[in-house]
Amino acid sequence: MGGTYVMSLPEEELRREERRLETVLERVEREIEESRVTAGGRKEQLVGGKRELWEDLVYDTDDWFEAAVQLTQQAQELSQHATSYRLAQGRSEHLQRLLSNPYFARFDFRETGSETDEPIYLGTMSIADEETHEVIVYDWRAPVAGMYYDYGPGPASYDAPDGKVTGEMTLKRQFVIRGGKLLAAFDTGVTIGDEMLQRMLGQGADDKMKSIVTTIQREQNRIIRETDHRFVFVQGAAGSGKTSAALQRVAYLLYKYRNYWEPEQVVLFSPNDVFNDYVSNVLPELGEDAIPQTTFYDYVWRRLRHVGDVEHPYDQLEYLLSSPEASDPRREGIRVKASLAFAERIDAYAKTLAERGVVFRSLTRKDKTVFDAAELEAMFYVEFAKQRPPHRLESMKERLLERLKELERKRAVALYRKWLKEPNYLGTEQELKRLGLAKAKKAYAPLREQVAAYAFLDVVGTYRRLLADIDAGGASFPVRAAEWGAIVRDTNDRLDASAALPYEDAVPMLYLLEALHGASRMNRVRHVVVDEAQDYTPLQWAYLRRLFPNAGVTAVGDANQAIHGVELEGGHMASAKAFPAEETVEIRLKKSYRSTRQIVAFASAMLPDAAENEPFERDGPPPDVTVVPEAAGESDFGRLAAERIRKLLAEGSGSIAVVAKTAKAAEDAYRQLAAQGVSASRLTKETKTFPSGIVVLPSYLAKGLEFDAVVVWDAGAGAYARESERKLLYTVCTRALHRLVVLAKGEPSPFLRDVPERLYASSR
Questions:
Q1: Quick one: which of 368, 363, 374, 442 has its CA closest to 397?
Q2: Number of C-alpha atoms within 13 angstroms, CB side, residue 162?
Q3: 493 to each of 300, 322, 489, how far by Cα in Å?
Q4: DSSP strands (E only) in 418-492
Q5: Which of 5, 99, 538, 733 minimizes the number of CB atoms within 10 Å of its CB?
C-alpha cells in the first residue's frame, strides 16, 4: 500500500537539490569520523579512570580522610567521563541514521529589511559547516523551524531568543530521502502537503510507532511547542496523532531545556506494556535518550507491594464487562471511589489521624513478634505525639532500625559464643565475629526492609476505618448513606476474601498513604506525559498532581474512547479542581489521519459526540458488516472469520487484529481460528512486546494501537448492548487503517443499527 514517488520540480532545480544532498552527506560522514575519534578518546578516559580507581582502593597512607576525599574526586571524574562517552556515542549513532535521511524539508525565508532569501533545511539534528560554522541543516525543534509547520508561502514570523522575527516565506518544499537518495521533492502550501501525507498514511502499519516529524500538522505543532502553560490537555479524535504529538513534545522540551533537564526527569504513563514497546523507537529516532516509561498500575503495584498484591485494572474491567449492571454494590463502589468527592473525604479524614485512627500491624520473625502493634501505636500517639504525622512515622522508622541493629548485634554475639564452644571449628576469633554479624544481618534483613518501607503501618486496616467513619452525607457525595453502607460491606467482604487488593481500593489507599506521610513525592520530575488520559479517574488525577508537585503535565486522550465500564460524573479528563485554570490549556484535535474516510464515517456514526470528527481525505473500501444467524455453530463462525482474514491477507494487509470484547472471548476466537488453520499470536495483559502479523486480543488492549485491518469478533447484541459499551465498540473499529470487517452473531449490536446502511457493505 503506497506507490511510486513523483518528482514535481524542474530538472535543473532537482539537480541542484541532489548536489546539495551529496554535499550534506559528505559533511555527515566527516562528522561521523570525528565523533568516532571523540567517542574513542572518551572511552579510553573512562577505562583508564576505572583502572586508576581500582588501583587506588588500597592506599599506603595513614590519612584515611585524605584518601576518602581523593576517592570521591576520582569517582566524580569517572562519572564525567561516562557522561561524555555516552553523549559522544549517542551523537555518533544519530549521525549514522542521518546518512540515510539527513533532512526532510526546506523553506526559504526573507527577513524584513533584507533583500535575500535564506534557505532553511530541516532534519532531526543540526549540522553545521566546519569552516564557516553556518548551520546547513536545522534541528526541527529550533525556533526558526516552527515556521515550516505553521505557515505557507507569504508573511511568516518566529520567536527568536532576542525577540520576534518577521518576514516572508518565499518557498516551502518537502523531500523524501531514503538510503541517501532523493526519491521525491515537491513544493507545497500552508499545511504539510497532502501528497506527502497521503503516501505516509497509505503505508502499512508497523510493529513500532514512527516519529511524525516530517508530517506534523499545524494543530499538532501547537501542542509540541506549547510552553506558556504548565498543564496541556489534548482531546483528540481517534487517529488524530495525539500520542505522536505528545512524544514529539517530549523531544522538543528536552531540546529547549537541554541545559536544565535530563531525560530521566520526564516520565511517560502509558496504558500497558505492549504500548510501551510500540512507542519505544520514537525518541531514539529523534536523537533523544529514552525516558522512563511505566503504567499507572505498575506504579501502584510497586508502592503497595508490602501491603499485598493488587488486582490488575484489566481484571477489574473484565468484571465490569461481564457482570450484570443491576444491584451491584461493587460497580457503584468503583464509581464513588473514583470521584473527587471521595478524595476530599480522604483528605478530611487524614487530618484527624494525628489524634486517632491509624492502625499498625505487628512485625514478626519466624512467627515470633518483634515489634508489637500496641507498642507501635504507643510510639505514634504518645512518644512522638508532638510531631506531625509524617515526622512521627520517620521517627518510628529510625527508632525501629536502631532496635534492629541492636538485635542484630545481640544475635551476632550469641552466634559467636555458640561457635566458640564448638571444638571442631577452625578459624580465628575475628573470623567468628565477622561471620556471626553477617548471619545476623541476613536474618533480620527482611524486617529491616519492611521497616524501611513503613510496613509497620497497616494501610488496609486504616483504610477500613476510613470507610467505616466516612461522612457519606451531603450533596457533594455521589451516593446516599444507605447505599454507602452497602458499598462498605461489599468492600470489606472483598478485602477478606481476596488475596489481591481490589483495584478501586488500591488507589485510594495510596492516596491515604500519601496524605498521611507524603514520602513518595517525586520532586525532581520536570514533566509527566499521560496517554489515554480519559481512562484516569478524578481521584487518580488528584493523586498524580500530589505525586509530582513540581512537574508540568501533557495529557492526551479521547473522551469518546473512555472504557472504564462505569460512567463518572464530569467525564474522565482532568478535573478543574486538580489543575489551576490559569496554568492549564486545553487543545482539541478533530481531524483523524489513521483510518480511511469510510472507516471514520462508519465509526463516528455510532457516537453523537464524534460527528464533528474530520477524516483526512483518504479513500478505501467501505467497512464489511456480516451478520451470522444465531443458530450458526462455533465452527461456522470460525470458518467465516478465517475466510475474511485470508481475503485481507490476499489484498495485502500485513498486520491484522482480531478484536474480541473480553479476554475469554479472545481466547475462544484464538482457538476457533487455530482450528481453521489460521496462525495468529495472542496479545494478553502479560504481553510485553508488540507482535506482528495476525494478532488476537481483547478490546481494551487495542487502545493506542493501529493495524492495517481489523476484524471485530462478534459485534452482536449479546456482546455490545449496554450504553457503557458504545464507546468500546467505537474504539475497536477505529484501530483500522485501511480495512474494517465486523462480524455479528445473531442480532447486531444496537450501536451498529445506529449506523446508516449507506456507510457499509452488508452481507448475511
A1: 363
A2: 0
A3: 22, 20, 6
A4: none
A5: 99
Grid cell for residue 606: 455510532
Buried b (16+ CB within 10 A) or exposed e, 163-181: eebebbbeebbbbbbeebe
Tell whether residue 620 is among the known ligand binding residues: no
Q: What gap in Å lies between CA 760 and CA 401, rounded to an integer?
A: 69
Q: Are 735 and 710 a contacting pair, CB within 8 Å?
A: yes
- 335 phi and psi, to 5 degrees? -65, -45
Q: Tell me the per-residue pLDDT of 221-268, one tens digit each, with 9 for 90 and over.
A: 999 999 999 999 998 888 888 988 999 999 999 999 989 999 999 999
The DSSP 8-state label assigned to residue 308 in this structure reads -
Cα dihedral 141, 145, 150, 152, rounded to 10, equals: -160
Alpha helices per DSSP H over 550-660: 597-604, 634-651
List the grid coordinates of 23: 554535499
* Angstrom distance (rounded) from CA 107 to CA 167: 13
Is 167 part of any known ligand binding site?
no
Q: Considering only CA atoms, which of 599, 597, 601, 603 is closest in space to residue 616?
A: 597
pLDDT tens digit string along 81-120? 555 656 666 677 778 889 999 999 999 999 999 999 999 9
204 labelled as ligand-binding?
A: no
Task: Give Rg (Cα) of the chain.
Answer: 31
Query: Can you tell me the distance from the alpha carbon of 610 to that of 613, in angstroms, rounded to the nearest whole number?
Result: 5
240 assigned binding-site residue = yes
Helix (H, G, I), strand (E, B) or coil at 111: strand
Q: Which residues is 527 bridged to in the sheet?
A: 266, 552
C-beta atoms surrounding 258 within 10 Å:
11
Q: Helix or strand or coil: residue 611?
A: helix
- 427 is annotated as contributing to ligand binding: no
Give the whole-angstrom CA distance, residue 719 versus residue 742: 13
Q: Which domains does the chain have, with CATH numbers?
A: 1-190 (no CATH), 597-763 (3.40.50.300)
pTM reported for the whole predicted model: 0.84
